[in-house]
Structures are given as structure tokens and as C-alpha cells.
Amino acid sequence: MEKRERIYEGKAKIVYNTDDPDLIIQYFKDDTTAFNAAKRGTVINKGIINNKISTRVFEFLSSQGIPTHYERRLSDREMLIKRAQIVPIEVIVRNKAAGSICRILGLSEGMELAFPVLEFCYKKDDLNDPLINECHIRALNLASEEEVETIKRYTLKINALMGKFFANSNLELIDFKLEFGRYKGEIILADEISPDTCRLWEIGTGKKFDKDRFRHDMGDIEEAYQEVLSRVDK
């Protein structure tokens, strides 16, 4: 596999072309952002840890019938993935109240929700990724009705699978963000799944092992991420 020119650099990853038109390389950086990049920093070895955690989760989800962009991990920081066209929608799943839903709806952090809440955000940095609904998605031609239904179906299945996956490591999946892409006419799971994109609290203690440690200056960020890796990479 020949690594070629850089295609795109985001807040946490860099994407490179390869000599295969169907495959690209995703490189995980140590850069860390929060509040739509209003807060920036660096967490030593975060890219290595997130690449390994994402590898473990993608392999698990693939084994359970979820189509993903993951092909294989190439190195500590690089993952070979399918060249999917990213759907410009972020899908957020909330199992307990935390983060922005507490601010918007006046809920207490950790409040039990009667069932998982799905939210859609328009993936557009200059607008701070605003909340949208299915009517917005169709009106702006961001995805077809069939694609939205597929995304919702996969998302709910992923939530159930990941909830059990992390619970086996004594971690509660509070909420998480997903991105999807189009690949050869099919919707597949893309991006990454890591403490950058999931809120993970220790069962029994409520200790946070996710990016909230960076958002709220709680410290021990690398140690928390490393602990998640040590628990899931067995």
C-alpha cells in the first residue's frame, strides 16, 4: 500500500490518498479541540490511543454485521479505510443527560432518559454544527429518506452493541457521536469511535474517561484515554 498526497486535514485527523482508488489512509493526531475548536490543546499519544481504540470497536461492530469504512490498522497512528463520501450529518445518541442537552433543556447531568435520544447536527464548522431535524435534511438534500432511515437503524443497533461492549469493561456509554458515509451505493459507518467521540463513565463511581476531562480542565486526560484502551483491548 503506497501512501500518497494529503487530501484533507481536520481537527483530529489527516487523510491521505493511496495507490488504490477505493482506499485511503486516516492518520490520528494528538491535537485536541472542544466547543467547536474554541478550545485547543495537545494530548500526548492521544492519536495512538484513539487509533487503537477505534480499531478494536470497528472490528467488534463489523463482526456484528455493521458495515464500516475500516479495513485494517497500518501503524500506531494510521488506519486504512474505504474511500467513503461522508454524509454531512453528525448523529448523536444520548442514553443519559450530559453536555449540551443539559444546557438546552435544563436537565441535570446523569439524568436517566426514558429511551435513547437521537439528534442530528449539520456538519458545518462555520455554523458550529447546528441541530437539525429530518425535514432539514431532506430540504437541504443532505441525505435521502431511505439513507436517513438506514442511518437511524444502524445507529440504534450500534448503540445497543456498544453499550454492552463498554459495559464489559465496566464503562457506561452515556452518549456518543457517529458519522456515516456512502460507499459504492451503500451507507457505512465512518470517522472514529474513541473517548473523543463518546462519553464513558465508570460504572459504580461515575468517573469520566472521555474528552470532558479536556473540556472542563479535569486533568489526567492521557491517563483516562489509556485506561479505556487497556480495558477494551483484551
Please characterize this protein's 3D structure:
The protein has 234 residues and is an alpha+beta fold. The chain folds into two domains: 3-82, 2-Layer Sandwich (Phosphorylase Kinase, domain 1); 85-219, D-amino Acid Aminotransferase, Chain A, domain 1 (2-Layer Sandwich). The chain has helices spanning 46-63, 100-105, 134-139, 145-167, 212-215, 221-232; strands at residues 3-9, 13-18, 23-28, 31-34, 39-42, 70-73, 78-82, 85-96, 112-122, 131-132, 171-183, 186-190, 198-202. The strands form three sheets. Strands 8, 9, 10, 11, 12 and 13 form a six-stranded antiparallel β-sheet that branches. Strands 1-2-3-7-6 form a five-stranded antiparallel β-sheet. A hairpin with a 4-residue loop joins strand 4 and strand 5. Helix 1 runs parallel beside helix 6. The relative contact order is 0.17.
| Strand-residue proportion | 35-45%
Give me the Rg, rounded. Answer: 17 Å
Superfamily (CATH H level) name of the largest domain:
ATP-grasp fold, B domain
**Based on the structure given, which CATH architecture of the largest domain is correct?**
2-Layer Sandwich
**H/I helix tally:** 6
What number is the mean pLDDT? Answer: 96
Helix content: 25-40%
Key phrases:
234 residues; 5-stranded antiparallel sheet; 2 domains; Phosphorylase Kinase, domain 1; alpha+beta
Topology, element by element:
Elements: E1 3-9, E2 13-18, E3 23-28, E4 31-34, E5 39-42, H1 46-63, E6 70-73, E7 78-82, E8 85-96, H2 100-105, E9 112-122, E10 131-132, H3 134-139, H4 145-167, E11 171-183, E12 186-190, E13 198-202, H5 212-215, H6 221-232
Helix pairs in contact: 1-6
